[in-house]
What we know:
The structure holds 2 protein chains of 2 kinds.
Chain A lengths: L3 E4 L2 E4 L5 E7 L5 E7 L6 E6 L6 E2 L6 E5 L5 E5 L8 E8 L8 E2 L3 E5 L1
Parallel strand pairs in A: 2-11
Antiparallel strand pairs in A: 1-3, 3-8, 4-5, 4-9, 5-6, 7-8, 9-10, 9-11
Chain B lengths: L3 E3 L3 E5 L4 E7 L6 E7 L6 E7 L4 E3 L3 E6 L4 E6 L8 E9 L2 E4 L3 E6 L1
Parallel strand pairs in B: 2-11
Antiparallel strand pairs in B: 1-3, 3-8, 4-5, 4-9, 6-7, 7-8, 9-10, 9-11
Amino acid sequence: xxxxxxxxxxQVLKTGQSMTLQCxxxxxxxxxxxxxxxxxxxxxxxxxxxxxxxTDKGEVPNGYNVSRLNKREFSLRLESAAPSxxxxxxxxxxxxxxTDTQYFGxxxxxxxx
Amino acid sequence: GESVxxxxxxxxxxxxxxxxxxxxxxxxxxxxxxxxxxESGKGPQxxxxxxxxxxxxxxxxxxxxxxxxxxxxxxxxxxxQPGDSAxxxxxxxxxxxxxxxxxxxxxxxx
Lengths: 113, 110
């Protein structure tokens, strides 16, 4: 039982490049989330998926897209990376849709030059 | 807007002492709160949670206290150990699922 896994661990992009961050969970959770963590700020929600087949915007969705590929996998895509997207990205999953504990992956550290 | 704040960016405690980490939230409608521990280079790890119908909840060496009147919660760690060194932050139910605090770095002194 690996919990929540994320790939890659580190990534460096040039401005304008695109990439997809991958996330998978093996806990049979319904809800999945993408956050970014910046110095001096709390985690901020980018997008979430309350259940397979649905996605919704969070607090900071601009510049990102997501895909809930199946119940296990939730990917985050940067179509045209910008230096402002330099951050640590965390994926999380939650058993249900209501208030409940969220379980986090190890994170992807992204630098955009 | 909504906010969650922690009172101290850094807290240093002697090994074996008790640690108290505080958190204040702004949304009086928040019904659910979580404490997380984050070690350097790792993802947040769930410690304990509490719902608004409770004032206190205990786990293994940890206790969370919730004061809804002043919108404040605290995390108490008993007999602090070197392995407790990390950043601790709270999360409160908010508009976008949860609002997260910035964290208090706990340093355990030998």
